[in-house]
Amino acid sequence: MARFFMFQNKSGEYRFHKIKEIDRFMHDEDKLILFRDFAEGEIFDSVWEIIHDYEDDILPDDDDDDWDDDDDDDWDDDDDAWDIRTTFYEVFGGLIDYAQRFGFEGNLWQDYLTFLIVTHENPYSLSCEGRGMVDGSINEIALHDFEILKSLFDYPLGQVADTCGVMLYPVIANYRRSSDEGVISFNPDIRDSIVHLSKILANTDNAMEFKDYCTGFYKDYGVGALGLHKAFRVIDGDDETSIIPIENVSSMDLDDLIGYEYAKQKLIENTESFLKGLPANNCLLYGDAGTGKSSSVKAIMNRYYKDGLRVIEIYKHQFREINGIISSLKPRNYKFILFMDDLSFEEFETDYKYLKAVIEGGLEVRPSNVLIYATSNRRHLIRESVSDKNDRDEDMHTSDTVQEKTSLAARFGMQIYYGKPSSTEFREMVKILAIRNGCKMPENELLEEANKWEVAHGGYSGRCARQFIDYILGREGFTA
Predict the structure, then answer these.
(1) What is the 3-state secondary structure (H, E, C) of 339-355?
(2) β-bridge mates for residue 285, sequence order
(3) Going by DSSP bridges, is the β-strand pair 309-313/335-340 parallel, antiparallel, or unpaired?
(4) Strand ordering across the sheet containing 414-418
(5) Rounded to an integer, what distance in angstroms lies between the CA atom of residue 444 and that of residue 253?
């Protein structure tokens, strides 16, 4: 016999909904072993609540054969359905927030659950990171969890929503993102990969197939924040130092950096050796301001991200924490560059001694998956003044003093020089940037304006050329 429940709509009218046949959910979130305590699991918990409330309060018991349509005592499901509807709408709001942040589309609930699976760091996901399938008993435990997650993935929430009079579920299950959703907060390639995986998981036939596809994702893209982002920064907390993603990163490409072919090639060769597990050196990129030192590191990050390269920006006041940072990176299956931009020290600053010990000299060997790239306008990094010469004249061990000042730079096995361009090279930069950005100003006029600009803005450099072209494009209404 069909069972119905009654609810009152916004107009005060009473409507009856037939309770559709549904297989009871045979699992419980408390039975998960590896995939527990999701960092962003509020929606996950709310959906469990919907399922349990529906099955406990709305779905008829399997042995409820004596239910009578005319029995007023059984019209008591209105409050239960109202609670479920309220929770559903809270879930909808959360899912739309995720769509806005990350650019998800399609079935937002399945996208969200996929996101939780691929970002959850646990013994299984970390073992498969960059490697793929592993052996051992961990597979049986993982399969146990994936059976629960697949059941949750496949649960007919649309039927529950329809039964309980929830509006707009079809919109959430077939969501179309706007053009600007998720552009800033997430890497578009990874976003699209998560959405694609979500669609694949929705069509898997069993838990083993579900597990295999997730494992393949861990191999190709990694897991957690370190797997799904390119760049990170170190944040000082009250109790501990943490590494957080930089969500809006530069799109700089090595081809965007005009000139400096020798410098770029040396950096490429060293980075590729590092990624292949071959010996590689810590790099110091030094030279004149605005010549592309920092841009080169950003471009290296973008080129080799898919090969497992991650860049972590660290500031010199954080050098005391650097050993702890490196220890946390050692077990991960990525290659990390600790990036120190505009590195230099005044005479009174002593934090460089921590960096010296990390690069070379400490008892602990630097892990093979960590390198240090630094940029500086100073080759020797530590400021020296004329008074230093007078001090050395009075110093009984002059060579020791000099070595202390230069020892930090000497520990960078590769030092790459970025010098100011000549006037001819500067004009060539201006012409190439103008062409790339669609500037149609006549060449003679463009170069004449560029000469005026460089005189007033610090001389010849790639940065000066870029700023000049930005000025021209903005003045004449072009879009870069």
Answers:
(1) EECCCCECCCCCCHHHH
(2) 375, 416
(3) parallel
(4) 241-245, 231-236, 309-313, 335-340, 370-376, 283-287, 414-418
(5) 28
Round to whole Å and give the CA distance between 28 and 51: 10
Report the first-to-last Cα separation within the chain, whole angstroms: 67
Name the strand (E) or helix (H) holding 243. strand 241-245
Task: Give the integer Cα–Cα distance in Å for 448 and 464.
Answer: 14
Q: Is 283 helix (H, G, I), strand (E, B) or coil?
A: strand
Q: Is 401 helix (H, G, I), strand (E, B) or coil?
A: helix
**What crossing angle do the helices spanning 352-359 and 398-410 adopt, rounded to 10°?**
70
3-state secondary structure (DSSP) of residue 103? coil
In angstroms, the CA 405 to CA 384 distance is: 8
Give the integer Cα–Cα distance in Å for 356 and 349: 13
Q: How far is CA 423 from CA 55, 442, 445, 453, 459, in A?
A: 77, 19, 16, 13, 9
- Longest CA pairwise span in the chain (Å): 107
Alpha-carbon distance 155 to 165, whole Å?
A: 17
Average pLDDT over residues 364-376: 87
pLDDT tens, residue by residue, 433-475? 999 888 888 999 999 999 989 888 888 888 999 999 998 888 8
> Can you give the pTM of this predicted structure?
0.77
Residue 164 DSSP label? T
Model confidence pLDDT, tens digit, residues 174-185: 999 876 654 555
For residue 57, which amino acid is it?
Answer: D
* Backbone torsion region of residue 23, taken as left when φ is above 0, otherwise alpha when ψ lies between -120 and 50, otherwise beta: beta
CB-CB contact of 120 with 196 (8 Å): no
Helix axes 207-221, 188-202, angle to 10 degrees: 170
